[in-house]
User: What shape does this take?
Amino acid sequence: MLAATLRRTTAAAARLNTTRCFASAPVDFDHFSSGWEKDSSEYQTEGKFHIETFNKISPLGLARFPSKNYEVKEDWENNNAHAILLRSHKLQESEVDVSVRAIARCGAGTNNVPVARMSELGIPVFNTPGANANAVKELVICGLFLGSRRLIAGINHMTQLGEQGLQKERVEKDKSMFGGREIAGKTLAIIGMGHIGAATAREASALGMKTVGYDPALSIESALKLPREISIADSISSAVAEADYISLNIPYIKGEGGTHGIIGKDVLSHMKNDAVVLNFARGELVDSDAMKEYLDAGDGRYISDFPDDLLWNHKNAILLPHLGASTEEAEETAAAMAADTIQAYLEHGTIQNSVNFPAAALPERKEGSIRVTVATQNVPGMLAYISDVFAKHGINILQQINTSRGDLAYNVIDVELGADTIDLKDLQKELTMHDGVLSSRILFGVAGAGYARNIEGSYFV
Assistant: This one.
């Protein structure tokens, strides 16, 4: 693993030291000194952050990166991207260069990113919660009508009659084949009441529907956005028991205690035999075999935004090609949100909307100070060690924050500059190579510089 991670380094590479005059004191730090196969000038656009994109990212969103400090393109041939933006591309570890500091997905789900491995490497993974909420909500509302009236079957029937030249002759006679029901006065169960679930509840209530919700992790922010009339259930089974429609708005979580196949025989057995299940969250939430049995046994419907090898041609199922966030507006909003999140992290060390790192933000650093960030394993003694290193080097800490999430801890520290040259080369190496430290960054105004990693005991800077 180490050899693969450091495939672009060589033991014989020359050392490159960089001195940056900052305020009244020069700052001496290492950059690209751990060894590259070519001179570093071939690998870096001077003074710019390198953003690598996968998929087609909205140009309006990418325009949030100022060209003065950022360069954005799809492929960095010399393997020195500083951050990655992607949509649905299934990211492989081999595509994450050793220089990558952060990854952002333009969307809510991150199951196409190896999040657990990125956590081990000290790389934050960001998403854009709520950016596509309106687009998905509108499609859920569309799904309500698709499940209430046999519109797709009616359209297909009219196409067939048109091919035979029989539309006008048969239309009145055949319309009884496609009867339906109205949604006003019906009950919608909403499983998961985050951005999309809360928005769906409001729209459904406005359309005259009764709403019931279930979400064991309901936040105060989301609760305040719910319609007053909504009732809250204490389980999925109780939420769906009297529902005519069920909207799934929960994340897909693998493993024990996760949400894989959570809509299975048990939950389906509590539903009415003519309920309509709307899945615009993740296909894996539904047990396809159990759903087929449910659809075969009654007059229930399944409307999904995901492919299904078993249900694709079932007469009571409608499968869409993952269109939930496929609107121009949603793509622009998600790309802009991802770009802003990456900028905040690269330039200020701020963590927001990360799925693996703890939230962290310090006020803007004072003039004449340097910001240092350190990502570590969440083990005792790390904060004390970091503070001791600064004290050992005679550097005063002005402000700092230490936060943790699971196995990770993250530190943002502003330090004071004196009148003498500040030599951070040895300090950063001492910080980074301590057992349990994953990476460190020195932020002081030079885009792309000041990043160091502890890669299985080897120093990369």
